[in-house]
Amino acid sequence: MSVAFDEMTNADGSIRAAYTALAKWLNGVPPEVLDFRRKEAEFIFRRIGITFAVYGDSDAQERLIPFDIIPRILTGGEWGRLSKGLEQRTKALNLYIKDVYSKRDILKAGIVPEDLVYQNPVFRPEMNGQKVPHDLYVHIAGIDVVRVDAETFYVLEDNARTPSGVSYMLENREIMMRLFPELFADNRVAPVENYTDELLATLKSLAPVTANNDPVVVVLTPGIFNSAYYEHSFLADKLGVELVEGRDLFIRNDVVYMRTTEGPKRVDVIYRRLDDDFLDPLAFRPDSALGVPGLMSAYNAGNVTLTNAVGTGVADDKAVYSYMPDIIRFYLGEEPLLKNVPTWRCREADHLKYVLDHLNELVVKEVHGSGGYGMLIGPRADKAQIELFRAKLKQDPTNFIAQPTLALSTCPTFVDEGIAPRHVDLRPFVLTGSDRVRIVPGGLTRVALEAGSLVVNSSQGGGTKDTWVLEES
Amino acid sequence: MLSRTADNLYWLARYMERADCLARILDVTQRLAQLPAAYGGSTNEWRSALLTAGCADLFKQVHGEEATEQNVINFLAFAPENPSSIRNCFEIARTNARSVRTALTIEMWETINSAWLELKRYSTKNMTREELARFLSFVKETSLRFDGAAYRTMLRNDAFWFSRVGMYVERADNTARILDVKYHVLLPDSEHIGGPLDYFQWASILRSVSALTSFHWVYRESVKPWLVADLLILNAQMPRSLTSCYQNIARYLDDIAAYYGRQGSSQRLARTTLTRLGNSRMDDIFQTGLHEFIDGFVVENNRLGSFVTEQYLL
Prior knowledge:
The complex is a heterodimer of chains A (473) and B (314).
Chain A: H1 20-28, H2 31-48, E1 67-75, H3 76-100, H4 105-108, H5 114-118, E2 140-147, E3 153-159, H6 166-179, H7 181-186, H8 195-205, E4 217-220, H9 229-239, E5 242-244, E6 249-252, E7 255-260, E8 263-266, E9 269-272, H10 276-279, H11 295-300, E10 305-307, H12 318-321, H13 324-332, E11 339-340, E12 344-345, H14 349-357, E13 362-366, E14 376-377, H15 383-395, E15 400-404, E16 410-415, E17 418-427, E18 429-432, E19 437-439, E20 444-448, E21 462-470
Parallel strand pairs in A: 1-21, 3-11, 4-5, 4-9, 9-10
Antiparallel strand pairs in A: 2-3, 2-18, 6-7, 7-8, 12-15, 13-14, 13-15, 16-17, 17-20, 18-19, 20-21
Helix pairs in contact in A: 3-13
Chain B: H1 3-33, H2 45-53, H3 56-63, H4 69-77, H5 86-99, H6 106-119, H7 129-153, H8 158-186, H9 196-208, H10 212-219, H11 225-233, H12 242-260, H13 265-279, H14 282-288, H15 290-313
Helix pairs in contact in B: 1-2, 1-4, 1-5, 1-7, 1-8, 1-9, 2-4, 2-8, 5-6, 6-7, 8-9, 8-11, 8-12, 8-15, 12-13, 13-15
Protein name (chain B): Alpha-E superfamily protein
Pfam families (chain B): Alpha-E
Domain DUF403 (chain B): 1-313
């Protein structure tokens, strides 16, 4: 592996422009002060209750995601290029899903193989020929991006179902402004606090035509035991809408109502943070107690908008990912603005052969995996792990893709030993309404806190940083 | 507002109030148990604490007959098997609060959440008296903070009113039970009402609702059973009296009804109970029997709780 690109310091020791003010400040501030502020930040997070649950870890039912107090900085120029690419990609995702559930031009053209759609466990036949409000499917997308040098960003993953993390983006900024007001005086940082206003505008724009002028929006949560519950309640609060659970809703004559102290009240847009499987026990998993019986029939009748739409998973697994550049070209007739990480599809014999021959250099991922689970990082794996994956790959090649181990960029991070470079990624959030696309500058930066580690997932010891986009002066 | 949200707010307030009440019961019990026998100190104080808290039967199932200082304190304050232990009250309150984060102000949430975090710091086994005292004052301060945070920061809308109704329904129930149990325990063998032994017992009732000083201001007399009962049942000045609780319940239920533009069975029952309290005189209550009066009140109070549930919370 080559030496990673550091976002603050060039190889010759000089400081990159975006970080000039920060580097100066870091030089002048004693480590005790940083340590004190870090503890203060942790105390505030814990008191506010910004926690998440880790499944299968009963000791730590509520944990804090570690927060790093050193911000990650992008210039306005970098962000401008990035956001154009994100918008392009999200447009293509929407067109692709619409096509998959209607005319299937892209399958007929032989660009994406049919079985990748039809045999995909998250393909929803219920959505075939189903009209959704405004022909939009992915209203809230989280596109994971990594950086490898001064010029190049790669898209690592598209999250088109129910991407989470935006509450951390917002709370991280709040905390930073509270703890380090002096930094915000020295840097012109684009605000992110308007995200929830933009989200509400997006959600309202998506209301079905049957809704009246001021549509009723709700956030649907699986409940307080869900790992992202804090985020659900945070968003409902900032949006000023009800946070409902399945049992708060019921369907009458294909219309969705919520149970209120004043009787039933009609609901037009449901920002659901519940997977397809659990939405409606009559349509999907019959054992789901989290959903709303009959919700799909109200949806099919066009009386309610679900964001994101049902069946978007068909666009965000890692096998489909490898076709994204072609998907963009097919629907938009444009070259992709953001690169894809080169990907070997183990479903294809020659790719599989290459992967099996180079397991010690590659990252192997499950097509439907997430959260950094079930993957092999070749250069860091021991013999036994590699042989285990060799067997898995041979047994079920279609379930895997492989990618080169990227030298993810690093950012200065305050860890036990002091300030040291750590690998980061970035999840910007792309909002697609019926009127326009909205992206607040920045996103959630995740950081692998262990030296050399590339795993940024919060469930595996990753932390987060505030992400700054500097306004051009 | 969502029915589930209203339900959560209502019970959240009830559990916070209940925790406060339990802390006061423990406080007073310990004080009484330390008195020399000649002044009314006796070994059955801890049993009487269980009766007051309304969990004597459950205690018996878990610990058998023997109610000692240690096991009663543990049972009322910390026991996971007692659904109304202070710890469980805080746990349930926080779970409810998490489910209705959006209906709480940040100050209310922080009070509950930091109390819940703080709770873990108290070791439950073999607390010294000093530790217990610290713990009880922490519980009382938490309920003061919660109440104050709600009062100072909540919008005056249905969320506020439902939580207030919950608090006063719980408080009325607690006051009635404190009065009933103590009266029951004390009166049979009180041959000389007004003697020194009796004095400390009745004073302890007042203390458990933090009304000893108020008593002197209102009556300017030494502590007497019928005056204590009058203060806790009929006196509208006394914020824990049944009358005061029902003035508040009736008022907040009326606010809800006006806001929604519709009256219902809970409003009617609250007004009926308030009127009955207003028409009662202490002499009559003692004549027909204090115990019977309180029994009847507790039943009506529970009935109000179910009316509120049926009308709004389902």
